[in-house]
Amino acid sequence: QKEVEQDPGPLSVPEGAIVSLNCTYSNSAFQYFMWYRQYSRKGPELLMYTYSSGNKEDGRFTAQVDKSSKYISLFIRDSQPSDSATYLCATFTGGGNKLTFGTGTQLKVEL
Amino acid sequence: DAMVIQNPRYQVTQFGKPVTLSCSQTLNHNVMYWYQQKSSQAPKLLFHYYDKDFNNEADTPDNFQSRRPNTSFCFLDIRSPGLGDAAMYLCATSRDGYPYEQYFGPGTRLTVT
Questions:
Q1: Are A43 and B42 an interchain contact pair (Cβ–Cβ within 8 Å)?
Q2: Residue B23 has pLDDT above 90, yes or no
Q3: Contact, A4 vs A87, CB < 8 A?
Q4: Among A4, A64, B10, B78, which has the minimal tally of Cβ within 10 Å of its Cβ?
Q5: B5 touches chain A (CB under 8 A)
Q6: Residues B47-60, mean pLDDT to the nearest whole number
Q7: Residue A56 contacts B where some CB pair is shorter than 8 Å
Q8: CB-CB: which of B42, B45, B107 is closest to A98?
Q9: CA A16 to chain CA mean position, Å
């Protein structure tokens, strides 16, 4: 079993839809939870991170962590075609320097 | 703009022919990372530098080496590339104590023929 599981998609939604992207993890030692966006043939870009459980909002993006169920979510409101990318979740225990990534969910927002 | 730069963006090498990928950063971060990412897979950490302190991942093949001559530059050397080494190679940086805020370069796509 992988430490971080993520549905690969592809997920296709119409412009303006609310998108929900999710990950589950198995290691209860994870304390930090990140979402990266990766456009085709580019490097990942950090969208936001959350420490422990709770919600964090940044513009149209909301990250949510439920440590009791080991579930991580990213919500995108008013989705745009420019949001079309692969979204990677990542986790970190708080010690050392190593992140654990999911395999990414490919999102396509259609006009 | 502060950034992470990788050169070349695309590299084609022959089976067994050594290749070097480079990464430079203007962020002045003291931690630099090298990842391998294959299609539809998670980035896989190969190794990282904390300043000049090299940290190898246990499952990184000996075929992969790295050098960091100064804060700004880091190199990935693949001594004898095999077909299975074809991948995107990503360089990333972070500040000390903030590994959850990693800044990635655009990547180098390596093809092995």
A1: no
A2: yes
A3: no
A4: B10
A5: no
A6: 95
A7: no
A8: B45
A9: 19
Which residue in B67, B88, B82 sits closest to B20, CA to CA?
B67
With a cut of 90, say whether residue A26 has pLDDT above it: yes
- Digit-coded pLDDT (tens) for A33-55: 999 999 998 999 999 999 988 89
* R_g over Cα of chain A: 13
Confidence grade of residue B51 (pLDDT, cut at 50, 70, 90): very high
Burial label, A37 (beta-carbon count in 10 A; 0-12, 13-18, 19+):
buried
CB A98 within 8 A of CB A92: yes
Block residue for tokens 């991580």? A72
From chain A, the residues in CB contact with B87 under 8 A are none
3-state secondary structure B17-62: CCEEEEEEECCCCCEEEEEEECCCCCCEEEEEEECCEEEECCCCCC
The one-letter amino acid at B51: D
A48 touches chain B (CB under 8 A): no
With a cut of 70, say whether residue B2 has pLDDT above it. Answer: no
Q: Which two tokens stand for residue A89?
A: 């979740």
Which residues in chain B (35-64) have CB-CB distances under 8 A to chain A? 40-43, 45, 48, 50, 55, 57
Arithmetic mean of pLDDT, B60-78: 97
Residues 26-45 of A with CB under 8 A from B: 32, 34, 36, 41-45
Write out chain B residues lying below 8 Å of A101, CB-based: 42-43
